[in-house]
Each structure stands twice: as C-alpha cells, then as structure tokens.
Amino acid sequence: MEVMTTIKMKIKDCILIEPFTCKEDDNIVDVAKKLREITLRHIFVVDENEFPKGIISIIDINNRIVAESKDPSKTLAKDIMSTPIDVANIEDDVEELSKKLIEKNHVLAPVVENEKIIGIITIHQVLKNLNKE
Amino acid sequence: MDLEKFVDNYFEELVSDDEIKGYLDSNDPEKTELLKDRLRGSLKKSYANYANDYFDSKGIGSYLSTFLRKSGSVADVVGTYMFWAMGGAGFGLKGAGLVGKSVADAIDNYHYLGHAKAETLSDKAMDEAKIVGEGLAERAAAYLPLGVGEVADFLRGRSKFDDKVINYAVKYAKNEFLDYVRDKIEKGPKIVPLGKFRNPEYADKPLERKLSGAPDKTLVS
User: Fold this and answer.
1) CA distance A32 to B197
2) CA distances in angstroms from B162 to A123, B61, B156, B159, listed in the order given
3) For residue B61, which of B95, B103, B118 has the smallest C-alpha distance?
4) For position B216, what pLDDT does the model report?
5) Smallest Cβ distance to A39: which of B199, B207, B215?
6) Strand, helix or coil at A56?
7) Residue contact B202–A117, C-beta within 8 A
8) pLDDT digits (tens, 9 = 90+) for B1-31
9) Coil, strand or helix: which one is A67?
10) What interface predicted TM-score (ipTM) does this complex get?
11) Is the pLDDT reported for residue B210 higher than 50?
C-alpha cells in the first residue's frame, strides 16, 4: 500500500515583509505620514515590547477620523486600531494560518518570534506556500 | 584554567575575530547583546566539552611534573655553565636536567592523551606527534652553546599541552557560534525590506529607518 506523506510548510519557509509598525501612543498624523511613505495599506500597532496589538488601515483613518471630524493630531493609534488581531508565530503551519485568514477575510498577518514582531505575511504568500505542500 | 577565566580570556578575542565580528556589527544593540550572550554560551559549552575534564583531572601528577620541570630546568642551566667552565661534570648535570624535563613532559603527555579531547582521533595523534617532535627539537637544541632549547623549554614548559586544549576549546566555541548564527540566517524567513514598497510620490524624502522596529534579517534584494 502506498503511503502518502505531506510536508507541512511553516511560516518560516515563506517570504515575509519587514514589519511596518507604529506605537500605540503615536498620533494619527504621524501614522498617516508613515502610511503615505509606503504603498502598504495597513500598519500594525505594537506595544512597547514590539508585540502587535492592533491594525490600522487607510480606510480606518477615513472612517474613524475624517468622517467623524476628529482631530488626527489629538487621536492616538490605540484609539482607532482594530482589535483583536490574529498573530502568527514563525513556527506555525501555513495551512492553519490560511484557514484563519480566509475565514476572517484578512489579507495579511503579523509574524512574531519570541513575542516580537519580525515580519508581515500576506495571503498571497500563504496561498502560494500552501500550494507547495 | 577554570571556566570563568577561560570565558573572560577568550570572549574578547572571539568578539574581535573577523568572521564573528561581521555578525555582531548590527544597528540593533539588543540583538548584538543577545548574540554576545550566545557567544559566551558557546565558550562555556566548548569548555565543558573540550577542556573541563583535562583541567579538572590535574592531580598529583601535575605537581610532580612541575617539580621535575623546574628542577630539571635549573640543573640544565647550571649544567650548561659548568660544561663551559669545567667540561664533563657539567655535561652530566645538564643530562640529568634534560632527563627530569623529559619525564615531566612524559607525565604531562600521558595526562593530555588521557583527558584532552580533540575533534577526531587523527587530530589527537597529530597533536601528540607535534608535541613530541617539538620536545625532541628542544632537547636537541638544549645542547647548542647559545642555550636556545633551555629558553624554549622554560618559556613553553607544560603550557604547550594546555595551549593545545585551549586552542581546541576556542576553535570549537567559534565554530559552534558561527554554525548557530548561519543556521538562523539561512533557515530563517527571507524578509523583503520596506524600501521595496516605497511610495514613489515621496521618493525624494529619505525613508525613516525607524519606520518599524524591524530587527536586521537577511533581506531579499
């Protein structure tokens, strides 16, 4: 009888993007300045230990600041960030992460090692590596 | 040499080693400190594997060989002067000194072979051949009128055995550390730098490096 074996791909086998982050106490003007420098549409909010706590998208700034006439210089990242977020560990299986991302309709996730963000993984990378299993 | 002294003595030497230095030169001080701690760990591990047994097991043989080596050196030097001044009698004393030192070497060699660890048996055999060869050369040189062998013997003495053990331990620590960091880099994820996602509209402004708290990793170019 032929025995089929599957090699589980791990997140560490994927290509990640360097972390794109701001601090919880950064004001939205500073966050917006970071977002305009980089073509990514999301930025992760990290605590003092560089652990990801939330995420802010450009749409969030539109919907939660501009549309509500809030002062962006007086509003902090932690006030408008979306929480909770799914945090992937570098040793996690790609398959598990793909299920989470698809289920929640998320396009990316922060990747941590030793409780510190080391990169960002996109759904594109997840699906590409899932295909290799 | 005990563990603490070994780590203290050779940590700085390894930190300034060209190959290791490349990995320690990072913009992230926290990462540098972590790697330095890892390097200390490699030294401790290598001492435990390659040197602890050798240095720990030095017993009465060590005192005997030290005594023989010192008294042999004295007899050797005195014998040389007597030989120059009086001839045959000095030759005898010098010979006794050389015998004493040879016995000391034999004791140390026996201890070295029994307790020192090398990576392979052939390494150990080569070390032994080298030490014996050096010893014979020194013995022969001791008969030169300039006293070259006496000085060489005095300067090296038992340390030639200790040096071999320490050299192995330091070499092992270096390789162990380099294997660790290379493994981390090669097996770790490839990380695309944020610069690849730079908005061209703002390309004229320098990218703020502290855009993220990103640790330095292998970057995909």
Assistant:
1) 16
2) 58, 14, 10, 5
3) B103
4) 47
5) B199
6) strand
7) no
8) 778 888 988 999 999 888 888 888 765 677 7
9) coil
10) 0.86
11) no
Q: By the 8 A CB rule, do B54 and B112 touch?
A: yes
Locate tokens 């071999």: which residue? B164
The amino acid sitting at B105 is: D
Chains A, B: CB contacts under 8 A, how many?
77
Q: Using a CB-CB distance cutoff of 8 angstroms, which residues of chain A are in contact with residue B199?
A: 36-39
Quick check: B120 contacting A, CB < 8 Å? Answer: no
Cβ atoms A122, A108 nearer than 8 A: yes
Q: Where are the beta strands (DSSP E) in B113-183?
A: none
Out of A16, A34, A50, closest to residue B191 by CB? A16
Q: Which positions of chain A have pLDDT values less than 50?
A: 1-5
From residue B68, give the alpha-carbon distance in Å to each of B54, B138, B158: 20, 16, 11
Quote the pLDDT of residue B181.
Answer: 85
* Cβ atoms of residues A130 and A3 within 8 Å: no
Q: Which residues of chain B lie closer than 8 angstroms to A31, CB-CB?
A: none
